[in-house]
Amino acid sequence: MSSPRPLNRRHFLRTTSAAAATGYFVGSSSLTRGQESPNERPVFATIGLRNQGWSITSKSTKFADFAAFADVDANVLGENLEKLEKQTGKKADGYSDYRKVLERDDIDAVMIATPDHWHTKISVEAMLAGKDVYCEKPLTLTIDEGKLIERVVKQTGRVFQVGTMQRTESDQRFLKAIALIRDGRIGEIVKVTCGINGATGSPVIPAIDVPEGLDWDKWLGPAAKVPYRALPQMREGYGGGVPLYTNCHYAWRNWYEYSGGQMNDWGAHHVDIATWALGASDSGPNKITPVSYSLPVEYENGYPTVDDQYNSPTKFEIHANMPGDIPLVITSEGDNGILFEGTKGRFFVNRGKLTGKPVEDLESNPLPEGAVEAVYGGPVSENHTANFVAAMASREQPISDVWSHNRMLEICHLANIAIRLGRELNWDPTKREIVGDEQANAFLSRECRKGYEIDM
């Protein structure tokens, strides 16, 4: 088995693109058994099915067969089992306990789309059970969880893809943005601004009976035992069909106990592209400064003083001092996307547009042939799952590897710690710890609830 950390991405993607073109994919369990069949498709299972769980599953049926689903909500589980059979004509088994999935020898990889506070436990246990892993972003709830996942990837040699899909999708717009920078179209970068939207607080949310079919204790898992809360108003649009205000379902992103608010949600996308463009995927900032922020509830010693309202930031401006003293600004103001400013110009990129004079100049002065592929490391995969499956065949890490993701996500985690404590943090990117602040360093990890510790 090759080294789990990518040593030559160009060679890796040339190999995996060839695998994708021929359809020659070998699942990890097959490799273990020493069997190689050009007709074999990898066998997947999805853990966590609501919204994004079904989204990544439905995109992946082109490349893999799904043998099992797991979800702690019986209604969500049953609904998605039916959708899979309708889409593929094949039935899958359903489980309320994800460990039943990990016990199966016929499953090569798992796709994890649970709330964030479950990601690390399931990911680690899946790798130790011999499964490759595709896990949604943000990968972790704390910085130390990221370090643990890195150790287990290295220990087991499993292939691990993080769901930061902007690296492959959105019409290659973000790859083109990085290619512009590498070709010197804006000169030396002097500032990067990531607009990731603000959020709203909530009314007081009462404790009510748990909805029928939902195993609330399992949903909480490693998090502290608390009552289920919800108001009757329902959410519309994406994430609809659930209460608008709750500590479960779609709104768990607004609670530090289960996620990191907008900082870890949109931040995990745009800060990822920003650090990639800066060439800082193997390093990090030396300082995080909370210039301004608003929290929806009162805090004391870094913890909310009430437990019946959303508690993640609603507005913020964070400055991360990146290598070369380049400021990386993360803000809730302005357009959602990334503004790159250099000594020779500037441009803006998001999922809908790539604009600015350097972009307009491409009409008369296009990028060199292969510039986008050079950013990616080879031919760009059809989508994120194609890249993952090809990496499973090559046994090398995919485009969204855990190391670059964790380095980027450390910025988002540190920003949240700085907001919670209301002060600037000095960060040692080599030791990966906060300098001279024992209280802040305590936020780098969390204690799992008894009975839900990581099984190692």
UniProtKB/TrEMBL annotation:
User: Residue limits of the Gfo/Idh/MocA-like oxidoreductase bacterial type C-terminal domain?
Assistant: 203-453
PROSITE patterns membership = TAT
Tell me where the transmembrane regions lie. none
One function term, GO molecular function aspect: nucleotide binding
Name the source's superkingdom: Bacteria
For this protein, the record's InterPro entries field holds: Gfo/Idh/MocA-like_OxRdtase_N, Gfo/Idh/MocA_oxidrdct_glycsds, Gfo/Idh/MocA_OxRdtase_bact_C, NAD(P)-bd_dom_sf, TAT_signal
Q: What is its EC number?
A: 3.2.1.49
The yes or no answer to whether the keyword Hydrolase is present is yes
Q: Which residues form the Gfo/Idh/MocA-like oxidoreductase N-terminal domain?
A: 80-163
Q: What keywords appear on the UniProt entry?
A: Glycosidase, Hydrolase
Output the Pfam families linked to this UniProt entry. GFO_IDH_MocA, GFO_IDH_MocA_C2
Record's PANTHER family? BCDNA.GH03377 (PTHR43818), OXIDOREDUCTASE FAMILY PROTEIN (PTHR43818:SF5)
* Protein name (record): Alpha-N-acetylgalactosaminidase
Source taxonomy: Bacteria, Pseudomonadati, Planctomycetota, Planctomycetia, Pirellulales
